[in-house]
């Protein structure tokens, strides 16, 4: 069975595939054009995909030989699951192994924004330390404040746990379903979406993105948030409307923002949001640790190996395809 990997992943995953006797195809050039990527996909049985290539009806029609896709990510918003189901193609992902790493980044962004770390670091780099000014670019403390989580799954749970232990923050959340573990262990309180945006001192987004939630955090939402609140997004850039976020920041509808994902992504270097002192932006590094990336490689390889043996993928976002075969 041929396995196409469009970018090199940690050796732990590659070795697992080799030891399983699978034929691995990895282009020397990791920055393939769409046409080049498709040409590889058309001539393979399974894909271990790195990045946000689109898997939709058109893709599955153009690449009928593809029998399974293992994503090197936990998110699968770039996959049309209905189309995959119609073609009988299982889609694997890599949950849990990046929960610590991604929640670490959300926690980092919260503190960086609260203390204007990016702005002050830039001042030092520019030799613009300045004299002591008791009123200049003050930050805020997080002790005892309310953290609102939109999407309290594993990553959101880890973010909430860190924030509670470090700053004794109160936890509220909005989910499709109640998270009984969080309610029991963190005394988290389920609230409506409107209550979430109105009561949060820090609002952190951790949900799985679906198209219906595009630009969910927009002008009308930011207008309802507290003027001293901080908006954090480490999930998907599509959740927030970037221009509306910028305007909310400059008009002081909200106090600050920390982003590991942007809209669009990558963002333009001319984006005016980068010039604000109350913003910290990172280039989507949520899973960028040795431990997380190795774990992702292992899970992705396990998904492909299981499929090659005729077994169900351990981490499959559309397991119904196995019952239909």
Description:
Helices cover 37% and strands 14% of the residues. The chain is α/β, with parallel strands linked by helices. The strands form two sheets. The chain has a seven-stranded parallel sheet with strand order 8-7-6-9-10-11-12, with helices on both faces. The chain has a five-stranded parallel sheet with strand order 2-1-3-4-5, with helices on one face. It is globular and about 65 Å long. The model has no long low-confidence stretch (mean pLDDT 96). Residues 4-318 form the D-isomer specific 2-hydroxyacid dehydrogenase catalytic domain. Its EC number is 1.1.1.79, 1.1.1.81.
Q: What keywords describe this structure?
A:
325 residues, alpha/beta, Rossmann fold, 2 domains, 5-stranded parallel sheet, 13 helices, globular, EC 1.1.1.79, oxidoreductase, EC 1.1.1.81, Glyoxylate/hydroxypyruvate reductase B
Number of strands: 12
The CATH C-level name of the largest domain is: Alpha Beta
The biggest beta sheet reads:
7 strands, parallel
Give the number of domains.
Answer: 2
How many angstroms separate the termini? 19 Å
Named CATH architecture of the largest domain:
3-Layer(aba) Sandwich
Proportion in β-strands: 5-15%
- The total count of helices amounts to 13
Unreliable parts: none
The Rg value, from CA coordinates, equals: 21 Å
Enzyme class: oxidoreductase
Domain D-isomer specific 2-hydroxyacid dehydrogenase NAD-binding: 109-286
Catalytic activity: (R)-glycerate + NADP(+) = 3-hydroxypyruvate + NADPH + H(+); glycolate + NADP(+) = glyoxylate + NADPH + H(+); (R)-glycerate + NAD(+) = 3-hydroxypyruvate + NADH + H(+)
Domain D-isomer specific 2-hydroxyacid dehydrogenase catalytic: 4-318
